[in-house]
Amino acid sequence: MGRLWQVQYRYYWQLVKYRFWLVTLSISVASCLVGTQLWGDICLNIVSKFFMGPTTVDLHQHEIVFPSLWLCYYLFPLIIVGNSFQVLWKQHVVQLLGYHFSKAHFGQLNLILVNLVAFLYTILGIGSMAMISCVNNTVPLRIGVLQGINAWLIWGLLVYAEVLLILLFQLLGNLINTALGLFGPTVLLVLTIYWDNRYNPLNLSVFQRASDLNMTTILVLVGSLLSLILSYYYYYYRYCEVY
Length: 243
Prior knowledge:
Elements: H1 2-37, H2 46-50, H3 56-60, H4 68-81, H5 84-97, H6 103-135, E1 142-143, E2 146-147, H7 149-176, H8 178-193, H9 215-239
Antiparallel strand pairs: 1-2
Helix pairs in contact: 1-4, 1-5, 1-6, 4-7, 4-8, 6-7, 6-9, 7-8, 7-9
């Protein structure tokens, strides 16, 4: 498995590195622009602005401002991954199967790689926002009773989980059709804008709804992640010929 990791990681990074750096650079530039606009603001900070979305009250009053920054942040990982796993499979499956690696090994490694993409994307994106917030003198980040570094850690974990969730939806869709892998998660994100429901696993991706963070919403999110991981592993093992 270690040998497969070394080979696949190198090939995979060659496939996605330009998209990854372009996207993360775009997020950093957008964060700088938003941070500059909010300089010294005592009501908003960069996270509440960047991940702003309609609340239940906004939806009931039909006062909805379309969250373009929020939507772009969660769509960009789909662009990074794209059809990279299909390309990886087609280019190297014969060679690697010759080393007696099974389809199960490929499925496991794909899940590890997509976790890595979600983790690095979150670290660089949220990390740049945290550094900017340290110098632009805005109101501290607060989630419920948490603030400061604890709030940043919780928000980073939530964003990582939501990005991973979206990428897992894409991986499952790609097993059927590449267009479905892109279109499906996009529809779910747009629906989330207009559907404030605690049982929607993407609900916590909107910062204003993170105040609903509790054991129920955490279990919904974690349960959704585990279900998608197991579904991908099972479907990939059975039907990876679609690649």
